[in-house]
Structures are given as C-alpha cells and as structure tokens.
Amino acid sequence: MTRSRLLPLAGFALTAVALFAVAPAVLSDFRLSLLARYLCFAIVAVGIALAWGRGGMLTLGQGLFFGLGGYAMAMHLKLADAGPDGLPDFMLLYGTGGELPWWWEPFRSPVFALAAVLVLPMTLAALIGFLVFRRRVRGAYFAILSQALAAAFALLLIGQQATTGGTNGLTNFQGFFGFALADPLNKRMVYFVIAAALLAVLLITRQLFHSRYGELLVAVRDSEERVRFLGYDPALVKLAAYTVSAGMAGLAGALFVPAVGIISPALIGIVPSIQFVIGAAIGGRASLAGAALGAIAVAWAQTTLSEEFPAAWTYFQAGLFIAVIAFLPGGLASLRHHLTRRRTRATRPRPPTGTPAAEGAPA
Amino acid sequence: MTAPTASTAPAPPADPAALAVRDLRVTFDGFTAVDGVDLDVAPGDLRFLIGPNGAGKTTLVDAVTGLAPATGSVRFAGRELLGRPVHRIARLGIGRTFQTATVFEQLTVLQNLDIAAGAGRSVTTLLRRRRHLPEAVAAALETTALTAHRDRLAGTLAHGRKQWLEIGMLLVQDVRLLLLDEPVAGMSHPEREATGELLHRIAADRTVVVIEHDMDFLRSFARSVTVLHAGRVLSEGTVEQVRADPRVQEVYLGEPALTAPAGGEA
Amino acid sequence: MTVLIGQSFTGISIGAVLLLIALGLSLTFGQMGVINMAHGEFIMSGAYTTYVLQQHLTDAGTSLLLALPAAFAVAGTLGIVLERTLIRRLYTRPLDTLLVTWGVSLLLQQLARDIFGAPNVQTSTPGWLTGRITLFGGEHPVTLSHARLFILTLAVAAVVALTLTLRLTPLGRRIRAVVQHRELAEASGIATARVDRTTFFIGSGLAGVAGVALTLVGPIGPTMGTNIIIDAFLVVVVGGIGRLRGAVVAAFALGVLQALVEYSTTVSLAKVTVLIAIVAFLQWRPQGISTVRTRSLA
Amino acid sequence: MPIARGYRLASCVLALATAAALSGCGARTGEENGDGPAAATIDTSGDTIKVGLLNSLSGTMAISEVTVRDALMLAIEEINADGGVLGKRIEPIGEDGASDWPTFAEKAGKLIQQDQVAAVFGCWTSASRKAVLPVFEQHGSLLFYPVQYEGLEQSPNIFYTGATTNQQIVPALDYLREQGVSSLYLVGSDYVFPRTANRIISAYAQAHGIEIVGEDYAPLGSTEFATIANKVEAAGADAVFNTLNGDSNVSFFKEYDAAGLTADTMPVLSVSIAEEEVKGIGTQYLTGQLTSWNYYQTTDSPANEDFVAAYQAAYGADKPTSDPMEAAYTSVYLWKEMVEQAGSFEVADVRAAADGITFDAPEGTVTVHGETQHLYKTNRIGRIEADGTISEIWTSGEPIEPDPYLTGYDWAEGLS
C-alpha cells in the first residue's frame, strides 16, 4: 500500500526535478522553447486521459477549447501591445473602421483575460456537454460531433478576418504581462510557468483519478445505464470530467501563445484535434504519466523525424498508432503492467482500457 | 453469513413501501408488450413474476424503473413513478438487477459497492479519496460473502458471485423496492439456496419482485406469484393457488415444471 | 421564388453527392457499428481508379463507365483487407476502430502521394456529361448540369440496388439478421464472419463508386478524402443507425439546407449553420431520423 | 500519513517552481535589453555558408511549396558550381514547415538559433510569413519570401521577391478595364490574401466606375461550388476575379464549366493559378481563362530559356516552371549579389547593400527597391492554352515600382 502510494510521489518529484533543474540546465534556449511547446500538448493530453481514458468520452474536438484559451490569451497580449486605446496591428491593416469590436474590449483587463482562459472553454464545454450528454449522445456520435464543432469553430474564426485575424491567426506578440518576450530570460520564465502548470494539472488529475469521483467516472464509462439505476445522473458525472478536460485544454492553449508566439485556426481544426488524441493514445489513454509522456514523445518525434524523412515519418506515425490502438489499447504505459502482471498478483485495478474485460477468472 | 444490518429492524416503515401498478401499457413500434397490467406488491412480500417468453415481465420492470416509456400509473410509497427519469426513480428507493449480471467490470468489488452506496454523496466527499470502509459496504460484503474478494476486479468474478455483487449493490443502495431479473440463472444449486435465503431475509422489511424461470427456486422461496401472459396478468396468488389455476396450466402446457410434483428438496 | 426553387435543385444535387459518399458508411457504420475513418480514402481510391483507367483508355466516356465496377472492386478489396486485418479484432471497441481507421487513412494518403505524386491529377469529363438541361426557363432559369444529373441518377440507382439487395436476396436477409441479433444469427447457422466481410465489401465498394462520381465535380488528390469524411459522417449521424431511408432523407435535407443558407450568406456561415442545426436536431432525436430498436441494455 | 506528506511535498515543489519562474524574469516591455536590436549570429567559420530553406514538404501546401524548394536548390547548385558566394560554398539546410504555421515559426527559430544560417528562403502562405515574421525580427535575421502576396507589409527582415498588389492585381484591373469590363464578380478563398485583394479591387472599382456585382468566399479546401457557380451565373458580370487557392479551384472551374459559363461569355481572371495548378485542374476546364503574374514558362528571355532547361534537366522534362518558382530562384541570386556587394554576410551589411541590386532573372531584369525591400517587376496577363501552357497576351511594359501600401494611388486612400 505504501509502495503504491509513494511510487507516484517519487515519480512526481523526479518529474519536477527534471523539468525545473535538468531541462533548463542541459537544453539550449531553442530546445527549451520546443519543450515548452510539448509541455502544452502534455497538458491537453492529461485532460484527454481524464475525459477519454477514464470517462470514455472520445474528445476529438479538444482543439476547440485549446483555441478558446489561446485566443483569450492572445487577444489580451495583442491589446497590451497596442497600449491603452490602441488597436491590434492586424486590425489596422485589415479591419473595417477604427473601432475595437465590443467583445474584444474586456480582454484589455489582464484579470478578465486570465479568467477567460479557463472560464470560456469550461463554460462552452458545460453547455455542449449539457446538451449532448443529457440526450445520451455518446460513443462515436459524440466523437464525430465534437470534431465537427472544432471544425466549425475554426471556420468561424477564419471567416471573421477583420476581428480574429482569419487564417493568419494572432501573432507577433511583444510582451507577456509586461515582460518582453524577445528576452531569452523571459522565455525561460514562460517555460517555468508552463512546467508548473503541467505539474499542477497532473496533481489535480491524479487526485480526481483516485477520488470516489474517479471510480464513479469509470463506472459511467463501463455502464452508463447501470449507474443511472443506482441513482446517479451520468450526464452530470460526464459533464464534470468533460468540463475539466476542456479547462486544461484552454490553459494549454493560453500558455502555448507566449511560448510559441502564435495562435491560429490551424491549431483548432480536425487534424490538430486528432493529433492531441494520438499522443495520449500511444502513451496510454488511462495513465497520467503515459498520456503526458506520450504527447511529449510524439511531438518530439514529429519535430526530429519529420525533418529528415517527411514521408517515412507519416508511415511510421500511422503504423505505430494503428499497432498501439489495435494491439495495445492501454498504450505504451500498459506494457509495464503486461510485464509485471505475472510476477505480482496485482490487487490494484489493471489500467482500464475501455474494453470489457472478457477474460474469465480462475474462480 | 450474518444478517445485513438493515434487516434487523423488524417494524415496517410508517409509510408502507407498497408498489401499486394500474393499467400499465408499454408499446414499441405498434407492438404492445405490456397491455393493461394491474399489480400490487406489499412490503415484506417476496413476489415472483413468471410467464412464458414474451409475456412482458422484463418490460414491466423496465417501465417501473423508467427505462421503457409507459402509460397508466405506477406508484411507489404514494409517489407516481411514470415520467420521472431513471436516476430519480432510483433515488426514491427502487433498485433492480438485469438478466445478465451488470456490474462495473473494471472496478473492484469494493468500488462497485461503494458507488452503489453513494448516490447521495456531496461533491466534496466525491472529490476525496475513500478513507474508511462505509459500514453498509462492510455489511454487504459480509452478507454476500465477498469480503475475501473485495479488491478483485468485478469482471474477474465467477458468474454467481457477480450476481451476488449485484444484490449486494442493491443492499447498500438501501432500496425499499427490489426488482430482480432472473437472479439465480446460471447459479449452482447451493448458490441458489443461499440466494433464496438471502432474499427471504431482505424481504422482511422491503418489497421484492423477482422474475424467475426456475420453478424449483420459485416453489422454495416465493411468498406469492403473479403469472403474466401476452402482456396481461393471467393469475395471481400463492404458489398453490397459481398451480391450481387451469388457465396457467393451459399456458404452461408442455412445460411440466410448474404442474408436476415438487422435486425432492422442496 | 425561382431562386428558391433553383437553389433547392442545387441542394438536391449537393445532397446526391453527400448521399453517395455516405451510403457505404451508412452500411458499415450504421449496420455494423464500425466507424471507418478510411472511408474517405476508399473514395479516393475510386477517383484514382478513374484516373488510371483514363490514362489507358483514351475515351473519357468508356473509361468513366468502366471505372464504376472497377472502382467498386478496388475499394471493396481495400475494405476486405482492412476488415480482415484490423476491424475484425475491434468489433467490441467501436471508438478504437475510429482511431485505427484514422491511422489507416493516413497510410493510404501517403501511399497515394508516393504513387501518384502530391499534386492533384486531372481527368476529363466525357462530352455527353458536359452541358446542362433547363428545368424551368424564364428570367432566372433553373438548370441542372449533366454531370450533376449523372450523380443524382447514380445515387438513386445505388440506393435502389442496395435496398433490393437487403430486402430480396438471401445475402440481404443474412445481413439484416446479423444486424438485428448477432448471437441469434450465429446460433441459427449464419456464418457471421462471412456476412461481416461481405457487408464491408459492399460498403467500401460503394465508396469507390462515389469516388468515380466525385471526379466529375471535384479535385482528385491524396487529401480529397479528408475533406469529405466529416460530411459523410454527419449524414449518417443525422440519418440514424440501421436504415438507409434515414441516410437518404438526411443527405438531401442537409444538401438543401446548405444550398439555401449559402445562397443568402456565405459558405462558411452555411457550414456553421448546418452544424448547429445538426446539434439541435440531435437534441430532438438523439438517435437520428430512423432507428432500429433493440432490447439490449447498452 | 504518507498522503499528507505527499501533498506537502507537492505544494513545496510548486512553490519552488513559482519562485524559480519569478526569479528568472528578464527585461520588461519597452526596456532595451542591453545592446539594442538583436543581430543574428551567423556561422561564418567554415568554408561553407549555411542558408535555411523553409518550405512545406508535407501537408496541404506541399503541392506548391515542393516546387519552390526545387527551384531554390537549383539556384544554390548553380551558384556553388560557379564558385559560391564570397568564396564559400552554400550549404542549404532544409526544414519542413508541414503546412502548419506554428511549425514554420518553430523551424525558423531552429534555423536561426541552432544552425545560425545567413538567410532563410521560403514560406508560401501569408499566414506562414506572418508566423515567422516576429521570429526573424526578434533575432535580426533575414527571410527571402518568393510569393505574390497581399501587400501592406514592410519588415526590415524580409525581402519580398514576389509581386505586391500593385504589380499583380492593379495591372490586372487595368487590363480588364481596357477590355471594356464594367462589372466584376469576386470569388476567393477565405483568408487574408483574397480578402485584402478584394478590398483593393473594390476601391479600384469604385474609383473607375466598375460595378462589383457579387463577392463570395469559400473556406480553404472547400470543394462544393454549385451554389457559387449559380450566383455568378445569375449575377451576369462581365468577368470574374478569382482569388481562390488550391483544391477549391478544381471544383470551381468544373462547376463553372458545367454551368455553361466559358472564357468567351464570362472570362475568369485568376491570380493563384500558375502552370503547376493548371495540370491538376484540367485544361479542358481552363482553356481561354486569364491569369495575372510576372512570369510564365513561355516568357521570352535568354535567362528563362536557361532556367527552364536547367530545371527540366534536373527535375524532369514534363515539369512546368511557374512564377513563385522563378521568384524563389531569383531570390537566391539576389542574396548572392547583395552579399558580394556588401562583402559580408552580416544582415545589416546585406540590407545596406540591397538598394539597386539587379539581376537578369528569367522574367527579365529585376531591381531591388531598397526602401520597401521589394522588387521592380513587370506584370504579364496570360491566357491558358489547351496544352496547359500560359501565353502572354498583355504586359505592363516597364517594371513597376513596388508600392506595398498603395500610397501612390489616390483611390487606395484609407485602405491601409
């Protein structure tokens, strides 16, 4: 019992050391900024592990929430660059009239923008979830629907060029809450903020996983109807996980903006949304460490391998993805359990894979 | 096996937890599965619901628990059930099991029971870990003889144990009305005996309705029987009364289990 | 008023394309619960089949007609291979099927890029499919191009053929039996694995036919499938599981809605409107236009 | 209680993390960080000089950008065969932008910071250029951008070797007006170039008495054009100005043809269809339609004969050459000339030497306009022929001075 609880803690401490001491020491500024970007994807992946791995909701539209968080942050940074009463540069070029749209105005306030980073995606997720889960839309229907919504949001942003920057998105940020982004020291600060955010998200999600709510979520995933007959409303149970995962995607999107310096519809549509899921799936959809590391590893491999062999990379990525989903649904994280299961008659639950355990027990 | 704590209270509740079904009809795509059923089950009763395949037994239970849309009236403890969503009906103290044992296979026995016990928990409780074993869960583990298996995944339990786990979940759920759909199907003989005795104890201060095909089991444990046929009530009464009913004999012609002399142990 | 009528006809022709691309999906997703994200690439294989045939037979008309059965066979074979190697293992995990087939679609796209090159390829439209017919004359004439008419005919023919196959042939009865009750069908001696394979062959083959039709109106390139697949799924989702009728109604309804909205606003707004309409519709009927009721709990 | 201790440990770590983050704070906005604007570090140590090639080799834009990469490589090989630049061989470092704007920004950072290249050649879409622009400005490096674009931009860190609006769109409108066109229908993809182009066209039209009878945008990648074709037909304009991009063109022209519209009844003038795209759409649907560029494969110049011959020898006899490829090819030579003029690879020196640099490009002699860092370019209106080539039918004659903000045009007031 102690071992099973101390082990993750040791892992957590190790991660913290790696993120805060080792990485900044050994990586160049450029590599560190890449890592910052990967960590943002890891935050999204942790949310996916919660909603999909534990909750069974295949969120193929996380780009929607990532985008909302990212745009909320980017709008504030743009306005802050423009100064009081100023207009963002792209509006001066492509906009109509010299007026700031009313829905941009509140983002001048840093407090409002920071709150919006979480509140906007979570509110939208709650609304979507309320409509969708209440009507028991689930499984593939939910996946397709969430994907379609992400696509619709991207279309909407592209169509409103004058006020959203269209396909270009929002880019060219000078400062981050008063700190010049051109300064490498501040880039490092952004990295530390992102690393801390990832650690916090991991902590929160771990607590959720191991709480009674986490158990209930698995129950809902495995048999929604059954939970209903126990007096719970599964729609609310799912809604909570979906909303929290949306908040994480929003947070990741917001942190992505100062780290990479751009947010655009290209990060929101169908393909990026599926990319978010791929990392979590390969690493292990129901395992926190698996999902986070999977997201980082896939993004890293994408950067390094696609430089050398763009075509081969596609084959490799697709092949790995197919093999893992088809033959190792728990992801690479479940390899450990496959290997150790024989040795220790584990009393802990096997990492759930979303499939009914078909094997009979030696009763 | 010790008695569950709940069944030690002998006095029936002030508001009798009686089930009253009036003129219940369920129609799917033009096919009437339940066609005007009236049914009264009193607290302390152990009512068996029998009938040939397609008689509407499961559909009746579906309608009472809110799964199948129905017309007419279903009242429990004075409250109308029809029109309420499933989980609200469950919160009124009505629980059920399914033909194929439905437990949360990816969770342990303990987790299954804990979830069943917790529909009323506050958000803060839900967000915390389980520190102590709730009393009701411990009792149910004892009652269903699953204490030794409490940390096993429910999916790895043998079939009979899964069914007991389901019953255990109803116990911790503290329901006043239990609707059991073939609870002993696939169980070994000793397991059936144990289950029957468990049902008897539970029924002392609850209302229990059992759908069952096994006639030996029925003869051993039923306090009263309702026979459904083609969506209607064909006959109702004690086991003896129903056995003597010529209409029942007609429907069950060729199925001697009900009419033939009881087996050795009955 | 005539604009409305004209746009409705445009909508119907958009709907015919949607129907063709969704018909095969309606069979594999609707009837078998398999979410095949590689469906778009099966459509692509049909389009490339047309292209290859046109390279070898110079006459555009003959090659187009020959491409119909050829593309059916090519895409159907791809479908069988996919079913045998991967999907068969995943029948109990529909969401994983979605992801796996998405991976397959990536593979097929890259394969197309390596074989045919990244740029689009061109096919020519046969002479008898250029030009158009005028339905109503007047100041705002309502017209329908021959190519669109051909697609509409093809879509209707495919629906009729599929319906007749499902209703009248022993194969169709077996497919329906498996859909309604897999275990029972198995118990009564139907080789369900073979029925699955055949269903998948037909569903995928229909994608190939859709690919042939698309060469008349759209680009032929490695990424053509990704543009289509979501639209196709939305048709099936709105149409509901298990009945072709739902898919037919959904395809034409979405087509007409899109055409009417985009005439007065923009294409982007029309797409967003259609999506919102779909979400609203699912509020009203979460299981789509028509469904087959089953007694199982899940 | 290990759990309680665990949380204490966790919160300690988080507190430390926050402290670390705050202690790492650098310059505030507005403060100069040390020695003024950054200047890129350029690795001039070896006997080669590194340059970056940043194009999409995968994703939706790969179709177009791969040809640009090929043209860039051709120029680099030619220069190396000829002795290199300032005695150093050019060492190209290729990166894949993957049709994804953040990836472009990331790869630009890698080329500048890690590889310490002297200049970067590439980008196609405006979105990718906008994404990398802050990276180049922050690090003080140079980008050569080879594609016609929407203007309204003038970064000291970018040389624009494609056309700006007054070298492509405005002459096209002049041509149409000469042909007696008095009403236009605007069709474009939904992104910055078509939207900006159409604002310019509308302003021009208003000043010159041309009626804009309709304006439609389709999302990038959209392939359903039945309605737009209907609207174009119903509007009955004299001509269509087409700023669609990529796959949408295929569907648009197929639908246009099916609606019975032809180059004779209602010509379409496109600004994003070059020789490469013609192949993918099908000449059947395009014959007789118009384009506006600065260069065609058929452009008559000795430099072009050499360019086409060298390109086809390197990449295949059936490969067409197009305007962006030519601009990319030219951009490498221009950089070489600037470096040699400056006698240095340093960005500041190269920029200082840029004004007035000329090169005998395949499109004719081009000259660098130092103030805007654009080129003087000649506009050519072309007609698409049945064999897939584009033949020049009209030309602006003299190279046009670049005017990215259209400040020299009265009617364009208030546009920027």
Give the N-terminus to C-terminus distance of chain B in angstroms.
22 Å
Which regions of chain A are unreliable across 5 or more consecutive residues at pLDDT < 50? 344-363
Strand order of the largest sheet of chain B: 6-7-8-3-9-10
Task: Pick out the low-confidence regions of chain B.
Answer: 1-15, 259-266
**N to C succession of SSEs of chain B:** EEEHEEHEHHHHEHEHEEHH
Sketch the topology of chain A as an H/E string, one letter per element. HHHHHHHEEEHHHHEHHHH
Largest sheet of chain A: 2 strands, antiparallel
Percent in helix of chain A: over 70%
- CATH topology of chain B, by name, is Rossmann fold
- Structural class call of chain A reads mainly alpha
| Continuous helix count of chain B | 10
GO biological process, one term (chain D): amino acid transport
Protein name (chain D): Urea transport system substrate-binding protein
InterPro entries (chain D): ABC_urea-bd_UrtA, Leu_Ile_Val-bd, Peripla_BP_I
Keywords (chain D): Signal
Explained architecture:
Chain C: One of its GO terms (cellular component) is plasma membrane. Chain C: This is Urea transport system permease protein. Chain C: GO terms for molecular function: transmembrane transporter activity. Chain C: One of its GO terms (biological process) is amino acid transport. Chain C: It is a multi-pass membrane protein. The complex is a heterotetramer of chains A (363), B (266), C (298) and D (416). Chain A is mainly α. Chain A has a domain of 237 residues. Helix content of chain A is 72%, strand content 2%. Chain A has 15 helices and 4 strands. In chain A, strands 1-4 form a two-stranded antiparallel sheet. Chain A has a two-stranded antiparallel sheet with strand order 2-3. In chain A, strand 2 and strand 3 form a beta hairpin. The longest helix of chain A is centred in the middle third of the chain and has 27 residues. Chain B is α/β, with parallel strands linked by helices and 266 residues long. Chain B has a single domain, classed as P-loop containing nucleotide triphosphate hydrolases (Rossmann fold, 3-Layer(aba) Sandwich), CATH 3.40.50.300. The relative contact order of chain B is 0.19. Chain C has a domain of 199 residues. Chain C is 72% helix and 3% strand. Chain C has 11 helices and 2 strands, in the order ααααββααααααα. In chain C, strand 1 and strand 2 form a beta hairpin. Chain C starts with a helix and ends in a 14-residue tail after the last helix. By secondary structure, chain D is of the alpha/beta class. Chain D has 2 domains: 205 residues, Response regulator (Rossmann fold); 163 residues, 3-Layer(aba) Sandwich (Rossmann fold), CATH 3.40.50.2300. Chain D contains 13 helices and 15 strands. In chain D, helix 3 runs parallel beside helix 4. Classes of the chains: A mainly alpha (363), B alpha/beta (266), C mainly alpha (298), D alpha/beta (416). Chains A and D meet through helix 1, helix 2, helix 6, strand 3 and helix 8 of A and helix 1, helix 3, helix 4 and helix 6 of D.
